[in-house]
Amino acid sequence: MQLHTGHASEARTAGDPRQRELAGRIARLATVDGAHPSPWAPLTLIRASAPNQGLPSVYEPSLCVVVQGRKRTVVGDRVLHYDPLNYLVVSLTLPAVGQILEATPEQPYLCLRLAIDTEEIARLLLELGPSASAPADRDDGLGMYVASMSGELLDALLRLVRLLDSPRDLPVLAPAACREIQYRVLMGELGHQLRHLVVQEGHAHRVARAIDWIRAHFDQALRVDALAEAMHMSASSLHHQFKAVTAMSPLQFQKQLRLHEARRLMFSEGLEAAAAGHRVGYGSPSQFSREYRRLFGAPPRREVRAIQRDAAGIG
Fold first, then answer.
1. Tens-digit pLDDT profile for residues 257-282
2. pTM across the whole model
3. 144 & 215 share domain
C-alpha cells in the first residue's frame, strides 16, 4: 500500500504553528524514549531519539498521529507510511511491525496514540444518521489505514493535549475533545472503514468478532470451519474477508498472537522459551523456536535478551 495523502488544501505542513506547539508539548511531557501513559488514560505519548529496525507488536484499535519524524507500519504484505501530514487509524486488533524511519536526539520522533472507542463511534453514527453514509474514495478493506491530516483534526488533538496541563479541567473536558477527534476521523476521507466496523451486518464487524474469538482462545486448536459457522459465514467467505481486513489468514493471525504472547511471557514474566511456547499452545519446542525466529528475526532467548539490553539503555 502506498502513502495516501489528501487534498493539498487540507494537509498541514511541518511549519504549522499548531503542529510546532503540539510537538513542544509532547516533548516536554515525554522527556525520555519510550511509550508514556498520560493523565488521560486513552492517550499515550511516544518518543524515540533514533530510527529502529522494526518492532513487531499487536496494535489495538487506535488513532496514531506522528507529530515529528516519520514511521512505517507493515501488516501482512501491506506497507503504510505516515508522518506529520498523515495519521494512522487502526480499526481492529492487528499484529504488525512498526519501524521508525526518522528520528534524532535533536529532533526526536514524537507520536500520540489515542484509543478508539467503538461504542462512541456507534453513538456518533446514530446521531449523524444518513449524513454519515458518505461514499468512500477507495476501500481496500484493510483494518489499518493512513489518511491525510486536516486542520480540524489537528485543532482537536491540540485541545486534548493542552488539557494535560489542566488537571481540574481534564476529566470534564477531555471526553468532549476525544468525541470531536473521533468525529473528525469518522467524517474524514477514510472514516467509512470505522463505519463498517460497527455496522452489525457488515463483513468487517463479523471479522472483528472472529478476531475477538481467536484472541480469547489463541492457545487452542483453531478450526476455521467451526469459527466460520459461529460467525454465520462460509469458511471460504471468512477466509477471504479475514485476509482482506487483516492481510493474513485466521491461522496466520492466531500464530502471530501466540508468538507475541510468548514474547511477553518471556520478557515480562521470565519464562524460558519452551515453557512460553507450551503456554501459548505449541506442542513442539523446535516448531515454536523456528516460527518465533521467522517472525522476530532471532531465536527466542537471544531476541528477548536484545530487548532487555535496549530497555536498559533507554532507562
1. 999 999 989 888 888 999 999 999 99
2. 0.81
3. no
